[in-house]
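Sharing a chain and its predicted structure for anyone who wants a worked example. Both blocks are below, sequence first, tokens second.
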Amino acid sequence: MIKKFFFTMLLIVTVNVQAEGFYLSSSDIQGQIANEQVYNSFGCTGKNISPQLQWRNAPAGTQSFAITVYDPDAPTGSGWWHWLVFNIDQSIDTIKTGASNQTMPVGSIESITSYGSSGFGGACPPEGDSAHRYIFTVYALDTEKIELGIDARPELVGFYINSHVLAKASIMAYHGR
């Protein structure tokens, strides 16, 4: 009886800890990429609007946030970076729909994507490919500022982000054509 009680209490504590963990959600990303988040070039005719992202329960010690959107299925041998944002102030917990290159938080930097330009670059897998995975990740960082600029390449930004991660949370969506 006592073992059962302690096991039940441990289970309750575990569920509460998981429920309160760092997480990411989006009102725009619900398993599939909508036309609003599809690129408008390379044969794709989407609206190329950055999605709304919201995160909660950042760990203690968080000094800033970063966001990436990555397609590991792009036929490049190294994937495709669709969005890289860093130096988001620790007081921010939401990025609004369409914020890229317009209303991003003060001090944040949107660096170069695999498209060769800064800001959000929507999904655009090669025609005929099976649906690609698009991984939206927010990182809680232990540094207030990453000392890189808008022209920083995705690999370098990724290196600096991963050097300062306290926690990360992701959601994934699919898109094919």
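Comments welcome. Residues 85 and 126 are 25 Å apart (CA to CA).
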